[in-house]
Specification:
Elements lengths: L2 H11 L33 H5 L1 H9 L8 E7 L4 E8 L5 E3 L5 E2 L4 E2 L11 E2 L6 E8 L5 E7 L4 E8 L1 E2 L3
Antiparallel strand pairs: 1-2, 2-3, 2-4, 4-7, 5-10, 6-7, 7-8, 8-9
Length: 166
Amino acid sequence: MWALPLAFALAVAAPPQGAGGRFPRFEDYPATEIFNGKPALPKLLRPGDRLFRTKIREGAAKGPNFAGYYSIAEWGCGTSCVSIAVVDANTGDVYSGPFGILGYGSALRYADVSEDNYEPLSYKLNSRLLVVRGCPEDEHCASYFYEWKGSTFRLLRKITAVPIPH
């Protein structure tokens, strides 16, 4: 009878686990160089890229915002939903994100943020770390920590989200 509430309380109150007992941090995954100059036009070669060409082009035109010389272009895919593409400012190559669609906004608690500063995506120009909070393909809601490896994302850690008690 008390097992489920106790397990929930422990999951919410437990300190982060993993290397050094903490979450991956942006400074742990520094970018090797920062791009300066005019970004290349995105090469829209895949059918999915062509569907969202305007958002990808707009995101790339703003210049790099991730991992030194990449632009993460974001666009909505419905209510509380986002999709992304990653564009190389040097070459214009376009890469997929680690999810097709990311649903977010449900009443969930993510271990790595407070409710006051929740963002579904967190990334920085000077870091190869991408933090995703939500439900990729509307399933498996969690905080995901990914390292950018130059053309793909490598999952570093996943921490399952828990419902916010009413």
